[in-house]
Every structure is written in structure tokens, then in C-alpha cells.
Write a structure and sequence with these properties.
The protein has 293 residues and is mostly helical. The chain has eleven helices and no strands. The N and C termini lie far apart (45 Å).
Length: 293
């Protein structure tokens, strides 16, 4: 298997343009799936919480067939008119262009975010493919990248960081480093512990001082997952970068929206962005930034 992977890597290395095209197509296809995850996973969680509440309160639940909802069911359809979306209308980016950003049946505008997520996924997939050598780390880092895209956008939309994504990301990081040794397992375990406990401590200090909750538990788990992948050494740089960018962009967003500083803003997108950057360029950035502090 290793020899086969090496031979595939050699083919791609000899054909860099073809390699980039393969990465772009892969990123576009995955980005289309990420749109489904971003849209449906929060709804799936809300429905599950509703079922739990009804069971706890002993309220009669609706027919399970009427409540069936998952990443694959019901099929893709226009939320306005309910018309099923044909296969040719689901081609990443291209379908949006051909349909001129509107439903083919009722002409309802299609959100621009759908092709933007697909393009973002393609761009980050290309970046990972070019930065990470052809090895077991490449598919692993691609999965991390796609997971971070979904988490960042879900948190921006709903202020939720679902356990369905953060916990597999955390355990995946520990398993990856256990098998590959890219990061010593002890550093990965300490990274997971340190990531969680650091934000957990900040949360409780802030709550004791102000009486308010400054962040959610999903943020703790996301930083723990990033620590599991990159080791405890990455935690200071991730916190520094996410806090700096979050402070600047957060104030800018509040100003543009005309909202007060008490308005809650999700921290997950900044953690995800900082974590992804550190995953690829952590060492050179640390060499420049941390020694100057």
C-alpha cells in the first residue's frame, strides 16, 4: 500500500497542473457536501433535542416517519417550491452559474454562499495538497481542513460547535499521532488537555467576574481537538492569532451591523482559521512571532 501511494505521489509530482486540477475537483465536490452538513446538521440537532425534551416531559411525539430528517433525506430540493433538484443542477459552482443563481422551477434566488463554500473548500484543498508532502498526513490534514470549514460556518450561523464534529476531530487527532508519530503522543494528549482546560478556565474566570458566559463549551472542545492534532506547543500561537483576529474583526462586524459590544459573537470561526493556518505554517510563524513576545 505504501509503495502504491508513493507511485501515485510520483505521478502527481511529475504532473503538477493535473495534480492541482484533481485537488480542485476534490475540493469542489467535498464543498458541495459541506453545504449539506452546514445546513442540515444544526437542524438535526434541534430535532433530536426536541425529541429528548418531549420524552422527558412525556409529551406524545409525532409520527417518526414525519420527523425523518438526515444528511441524505429528504433529497435536495428548493426550500421555496419543494421541487427536487436534478443531478445536473447539483454540479458545484457550474450549476449555480448555469442557473444564474436561481431555482429552475420558481426562480427563487439561491444563496451565493453555496458556491462560495465550494470555492473555499477547493482553495483550501489545493493549499493543503501543495503544502503537505504525499504521505499519510495529506488525507488526514484534508479531513481536518474540511471539518474546520464546516465548524466555522455552522458556528457563524448558529453559535453551535456540534459534538458530532468536534469530538471525532479530537479523537482522530490522537489516533493519527498514535499511529504516525507526526506529533509525539504525549504532546498530543497534553495538547488536548491544555486546549480544553485553558478555555474552560477563562470561561469560569470571566463568568465569576462578570456573571456572564463569554464562550461556549464547543470552543473548549475545538481547541482541544486542535491541540490533539498539533500538540500543546501549538496552543499559545492558536490562542494569540484567534484572539487578535477575533478582536479586530469582531469590532468591525459589530460596527458595520450597528450593534453594541454586548452582542455575542462566535469564537469558533477564529479558532478554526487560526488552527488551520498553524497546521500548515505553524513553525515559521512561531519562529517570527513568539520570540518577539
Amino acid at each position: 500500500m505504501i509503495e502504491r501511494l508513493s507511485s501515485v505521489g510520483e505521478v502527481f509530482a511529475a504532473q503538477p497542473v493535473f495534480y492541482v486540477l484533481v485537488l480542485a475537483l476534490l475540493g469542489l465536490v467535498v464543498g458541495s457536501f459541506l453545504n449539506v452538513v452546514i445546513l442540515r446538521l444544526p437542524e438535526m440537532l434541534h430535532r433530536a433535542w426536541g425529541r429528548d425534551c418531549r420524552a422527558l416531559l412525556e409529551i406524545d411525539a409525532p409520527d417518526p416517519a414525519e420527523e425523518r430528517f438526515s444528511l441524505s433525506f429528504p433529497g435536495s430540493h428548493c426550500p421555496q417550491c419543494g421541487t427536487a433538484i436534478a443531478a445536473w443542477q447539483n454540479i458545484p459552482v457550474l450549476s449555480y452559474v448555469l442557473l444564474r443563481g436561481r431555482c429552475a422551477a420558481c426562480s427563487t434566488p439561491i444563496g451565493l454562499r453555496y458556491p462560495l463554500v465550494e470555492l473555499l473548500s477547493a482553495a483550501l484543498t489545493i493549499a493543503v495538497g501543495l503544502m503537505v508532502p504525499w504521505s499519510a498526513a495529506l488525507p488526514a490534514y484534508l479531513l481536518v481542513t474540511w471539518c474546520l470549514i464546516a465548524l466555522a460556518i455552522i458556528d457563524a450561523d448558529t453559535q453551535l460547535l456540534p459534538d458530532d464534529l468536534t469530538l471525532p476531530l479530537l479523537w482522530g487527532g490522537l489516533a493519527f499521532n498514535l499511529v504516525t508519530g507526526v506529533v509525539p503522543l504525549a504532546d498530543a494528549v497534553i495538547g488536548a488537555m491544555a486546549g480544553y482546560l485553558l478555555l474552560w478556565s477563562i470561561y469560569w474566570v470571566f463568568k465569576l467576574v462578570t456573571g456572564k458566559e463569554g464562550m461556549g463549551y464547543g470552543d473548549f472542545k475545538l481547541l482541544a481537538a486542535l491541540g490533539a492534532w498539533m500538540g500543546w506547543q501549538s496552543i499559545p500561537l492558536i490562542i494569540l492569532m484567534s484572539s487578535a483576529v477575533g478582536a479586530v474583526l469582531g469590532l468591525l462586524i459589530l460596527t458595520l451591523r450597528g450593534q453594541g459590544r454586548g452582542q455575542p459573537l462566535p469564537f469558533g470561526p477564529y479558532l478554526a482559521a487560526a488552527g488551520w493556518i498553524v497546521l500548515l505554517w505553524g513553525e515559521p510563524i512561531s519562529a517570527v512571532i513568539l520570540p518577539t513576545l
